[in-house]
Amino acid sequence: MAGLEKKQYTLSRLAEIVAGTVVGDGACLIEGIETLQEAKKGTISFLANPAYEKFLKETNASAVILSESSAEKCSVNALVVQNPYLAYAKLSHYFNYVLSDVDGIHSSAVVHDLADVDSTASIGANAVIEKGATIGASVVIGAGCFVGENSVISQSTRLFANVSVYHGVTVGERCIIHSGAVIGSDGFGIAPGPDGWSKIAQIGGVVIGDDVEIGANTTIDRGALANTEIKNSVKLDNQIQIAHNVIVGENSAIAACTGIAGSTRIGKNCIFGGGCGVAGHLEITDNVHLTGMTLVTKNIKKPGVYSSGTAVEPNAAWRKNAVRFRQLDSIVSRIKKLEKDAES
The domain 110-306 is classified under which CATH number: 3.40.220.10, 1.10.3720.10, 2.60.120.560, 2.160.10.10? Predict the structure, then answer.
């Protein structure tokens, strides 16, 4: 693995990268990023959550990324920025290990003669690239990956080991797809009949935009007729299920273990917490935030924050409240009757 050597930057150089201001020694050398609690000399940390401000006085970091309001509470060098978390995100790449890639095509890879593989692409051990597939410039295909017939992996995209991309899938530029992800598997299309279920051929494909990240073991089903679409800059966490003909709008982010049923359309700039469930054939507008474990069963037409379910509580109390919940309809009916009787 390349990149294991230490990377060092002066604090002043890091300030230039994030348009920040140094309070203290700009010549201080930084060679890593760690949490406030675990940081040691030579590393930089960050303060984005006020709950961790108590660690500022005792941190061993050589510097801390923070906002102006916290700077005078910092006992070490400070890098003052407007958005500490965003600055941390940008600087994290400067200390990230760079994975070594195969130069060209590994000897054990199987690449069809009619596949189009750019000369700058990297194809790992035991990968399979099928007929008609297109692998763009600077693409990295990890060990054991599968790219099906007539699929396109566009420039500078990386597939980590053991990603499966079925036939007729298009993946945009600069995407990251993590291990175990399956793109273009059949949607759950079945029709009932007198002799049981009949499978519906899933004729559509999957189209993934640019700058999309797809987490480990996430599945995105191909469309039944039209394509399933993941628009530009969407971020998908691990173990998400996206069913056939779903459309996820630009710049939306979906956390782990969320399931989205078929033909639902999700707008731009949406955020879904972990474990959400979204029923099929729904419309969710732009700028909707679902908190964790929210179940959506009808259209959401207005931007905002939505939640469902009840928070954890002792089982005895939950059981009592569950009984009361089942009684709500009859209670409402009785109240309406009382109101009507009072008016007459």
Answer: 2.160.10.10
